[in-house]
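Lab channel / #folding
Pinned by the channel admin:
"Please post every new chain as: sequence first, then the structure tokens as a reply. Keep commentary short and put observations after the output so the thread stays searchable."

First post following the new format, from NK:
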Amino acid sequence: MRRMLVVLVFSILTSAPVGAEDWTYCNIGIGAQGERNYDLAIKYYTLCLNEGDLSRGSQVKVFNERGIVYRKIGAFDSAIADFDRALRLDSAYANAYVNRGNTYSDKGANDQAIADYTQALRLDPDYAIAYNNRGDVYIDMGEFERAISDFTQALRLNSSMAFAYNGRGDAYRGTGENELAIADYSQSLRLDPDNALTYFGRAAAYKDGGDPDRAIVDYTESLRLDPTDAAAFNNRGTAYAEKEDYDRAIEDYDRALDLDPDYFGPYINRGNSFGERGDHDRAIADYTEALRLDPSFAAAYYIRGNAFSSKGDYDRAIEDYDQTLHLDPNYFAVYGDRGQAHRAMGNYDSAVADYTQYLQRNPDHAWAYIARAVANGAKGDNHRAIADYTEGLRLDPSFDGAYAGRANAYSDTGDYDRAIADFTEALRLDPAFNSARKSRGWAYFYIGRFGQSVSDFRRTVEIEPENAYWAIWLYLTQARDGREGQAELRDNAVRLILSDWPGPVVRMFLGEVDVQAVLDMAQSDQTVADKERRAEAYFYAGQYQLLAGHEDKAVALFREVIKTGVTNFIEYTGAKAELSRLEQ
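Reply from TO:
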């Protein structure tokens, strides 16, 4: 904070004693004050007051001066007591009001400070320093418009006050008027080119205005003038981070913490930069240190929770999100991220509850509707999922993933026509959205529109030529559409490892192994993975029998797929679709 002290400096040449006054002690006090020997200054000002036989007017000035020295050493109550004494002797002494206002401001008693500056201005309406200092306090109070008015008045009275331009620059920055702030800081620097604080302020205005490069230049100049300013290192670090130069940002945060190991901000900021580099362990360590310094800072728990979540440590993430809400129940962003953590852990009811809380405060956030839709879909509540996808798409019609999600929900309800329409829209928005292309191919297959699914799986094979499943599905769609697909399957098989599953299925469709051999390969114990493989084997064997004209055998095999209960597999859905057609 800038404080233009009103210091009345005495000397024998400028303050001649009145009558029998003895100024010996006062002059020693003045000399000691000039040499910053404040304890000695207080001693001799006190002796002067007690033994100098001072007039009333001289006592006013010495009490005021001793109060200034008390303020210098942080003895604010003693300073205020001296300014009170001066004002009891002379209630029209404007300097004492300003100095007492400065001291009240130091104590954080802003209302009392404002009252004193205002009284000084009643006594002396042209007192530029009083306007300046009152402007400073208005900034501390967040009353930026009033601050701007006071600094402008101070500059009208004295246009050479660099610190008033600096102060008004701070106030303009507070109102978001960064260009005006930069203009004032620049004028301040023309008047006082070696002021580190002004470079600091202009750097902040450049950064707030979206110009981190100029901000870095000014922070660097500020640090040249004052290399011990930890805040300048911290802020320059944030400018580097804005440029995604996280290595330099971390270097600056390190230097800030070297200067001030208990400086809260650089721990948070360095943690953020470590997180951006993917070093979540170091990020967590920094957030933890920040919380040691301030265990009541809710946002630090929140961002540490995000770091734990990024590591996949969802239990600890949820603990931190819970603590954030304990400290600040209105920190609604937490509900969204805690919902994500619950969903990742499969706690779908908790996830839905959190997304719902988040949406109560943020009803226009499309992503939250879509996230809740995913959780509802995972619960099997497809109708609610569809409703949430629909609302999310109303808010953001360009969200291709939401169309694909709603399409999957429609597929799960058997509404394949709507599913196909949504997959098609997702692909229109993102032609490279291959999972939507595959899903549309399956949807076409389920309703027997085999010819339309051929192009989707052919394109999928082109994109992922080493995945045997897509070669199989391309063959099936061709064969079920009455086309000859074995030659293309043989060409595609060249790029596949047929000894690995589902390579034997490819060989079955090429006529190299029989159906029973494929079924035997899928038989073993009852582990989840083997159950899933059996579901696949039964389905593809069923397709083989269907293509061979053995519908009864195909039906039996498709029923075996259903018995596995592997409901999240494409083959399970495909078996249901085939049984629906065959058993009509």
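NK: DSSP finds 33 helices and no strands in the chain.
TO: also worth noting, The two ends are 83 Å apart (CA to CA).
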